[in-house]
Amino acid sequence: MFLSLPLLCAYSVFLLSFWRARDDLHLSLPWDVAMIGGFGAFFFLLTLFTFTGRPLPFPFFDGKFFLSLHRWLTALFLGFLAFHIGAIVVTDPQILYDFWPSGTPGMQFGALAAFLAMLTPGLAFRRVWRRLFATAGIFRISHVILASAVLGGSVFHIVTTRVHVVLSWQVWACVSVAAVALVLPATERWLLARVTVRPGWKRRIHTRHLAGMLAGVIFCAATIETAAFLLWRR
Amino acid sequence: MAAVRIRRALPLFLTAAGIVLLFGAAVLGHRMTVARGQDIPLVFHHRAHGGFNCVTCHHDFLKPVVTPAVHRTCIACHKATPAVASVIHDQFHAFCVGCHLNQQEQNRRAGPVHECRACHVREAGSPGHGHLH
Questions:
Q1: What value does the mean pLDDT take over residues A113-121?
Q2: Chain A residue with minimal CA distance to B115?
Q3: Closest CA to A84 of A147, A36, A154, A135
Q4: Minimal Cβ distance to B117: which of A92, A134, A135
Q5: Strands (DSSP E) along B20-119, which ranges?
Q6: Does domain B38-133 correspond to CATH entry 3.90.10?
Q7: ipTM above 0.95, yes or no
Q8: A95 and B116: CB-CB below 8 Å?
Q9: Does residue A139 form part of some domain?
């Protein structure tokens, strides 16, 4: 549970940074709710680049915990993404015009990123990737390429639609956060190769259920915090 | 040995190529169709904008033209001009939104900024539900 606190702190900073300006937009409540759903999806996408499924030195749990946490965070990401798309389409069905070829590139890249976001976990099922990829290493590289495309498409969508992320520092912060997320898995591996483990210490086993609990706590707390934040900003 | 290497590299190549093709097709499709794609039905409250100088929007107001004004629309002319056809969406949205934001910053009543249905209607001919804030 000690991981939930830094994650929620990061979420708070994330919301405050990207939702700070332009509260004079006079957007209706359904629009704001849909937009904040998209912000939540982007946050959980970033956490997927932090918890990649590889064991980290902290917490000193077994690999199943990290793999399970990655899956739970994927579920949260897809849930928020589905909410974002569903809410905005129900609120403003005219937005579907943007998915035609003549629509705006920002919306089309967002739609493609959403499509890839659904495809990527689909290909990550053990039965599927074992049929398609010769080795686990090749699957991982392919997974990274797809995830990077999802992140790139999402950032382009956020920056070019210019709803809340409009100021130049916000745009640069958004791009920088995404760039850091892209190199984070490789950095984690580099650090892991050099981290010294105290002799005699063993990773705690049977911790898979803790990942589900952690995801549940984060989901509940993030939802409550989002609702409170939205009421405060409006 | 070579066959094994190809078998291993093929999924990676297909993944990368698929992504490039997907995003490339979106960009290419947009460029090819933006000038003749279907417009989203739009309601413009001309009367609500009566307080502004005509040339604020009609930049060619003072230019002599042969075609009667009733047969000319902003969108049609911009689509027919290759230099601006590719940026038609961004240009029109930026023009309307920019002006509305300026009004809001001056604490004046302003039109919608982001909500689609405040300007665009579901079907051509149906009444718009545009509103002023």
A1: 96
A2: A27
A3: A36
A4: A92
A5: none
A6: yes
A7: no
A8: yes
A9: no
